[in-house]
Write a structure and sequence with these properties.
By secondary structure, this protein is mainly alpha-helical. It is built from six helices and four strands, in the order ααααββαββα. The chain is globular, with a radius of gyration of 18 Å. Bound molecules: zinc ion (ZN). Zinc ion binds next to helix 6.
Length: 183
């Protein structure tokens, strides 16, 4: 996973699935330490945090799928599901309750509080993403479920990345055309 590719650290968290299609059944990590490494790499967690156990991973996955549901709906111009929106709202409110606020010359800076664990940091990352002014640029890959901010010109970016989905989608279209030609 490359942090900058999707446009925000919280999107890198949403995109910790490796499925080719729309199933979201395969995680990009197998163990807690691998998940933590991905969160550190994208900037959602600092180094040296405790490796999440099974319960924490399960909670993070529930939050990830709820947040995916909400952002996927935004990308499609749909209203998000009630349950998914509520799960995300609850996680954000709880993380904000314990967060440290710093009022600076350029605005409010929100950071995880002293007791904030990985879950709170991820929820604050999602809150930060939700506050962005360019959310009309949220897109979902046409092939997989990766979500990204599209700042490309022209007709826009259709794939999470050319290497992962763009080239394979183009190859599939090419093969389909060839088959049609043979028949
Ligand atoms: Zn993709």
């Amino acid at each position: 996973m490359t942090p900058g590719d999707f446009g925000h650290p919280a999107l890198s968290f949403l995109n910790t699935v490796t499925d080719d299609g729309k199933t979201r059944a395969r995680n990009s990590f197998a163990r807690g330490d691998e998940l933590l490494a991905e969160l550190v790499a994208c900037g959602l967690a600092p180094r040296g945090m405790q490796v999440p156990g099974a319960g924490q991973i399960a909670a993070l996955m529930t939050l990830r799928e709820a947040a995916y549901g909400v952002f996927s709906a935004m990308a499609a111009g749909r209203k998000p599901g009630r349950e998914e929106a509520l799960t995300l709202e609850t996680a954000m409110k709880s993380a904000l309750q314990d967060a440290s606020f710093t009022f600076r010359g350029d605005g409010l800076s929100i950071a995880a509080g002293p007791l904030g664990g990985i879950y709170d940091r991820v929820a604050l990352g999602l809150f930060d993403l939700m506050q962005r002014s360019d959310l009309d640029r949220i897109r979902e890959c046409k092939r997989c479920t990766h979500i990204f901010l599209d700042h490309g010109r022209g007709r826009g970016r259709r794939w999470c990345s050319m290497a992962r989905c763009g080239n394979r989608a183009k190859a599939a279209t090419f093969r389909a055309r060839q088959r049609a030609h043979i028949v």
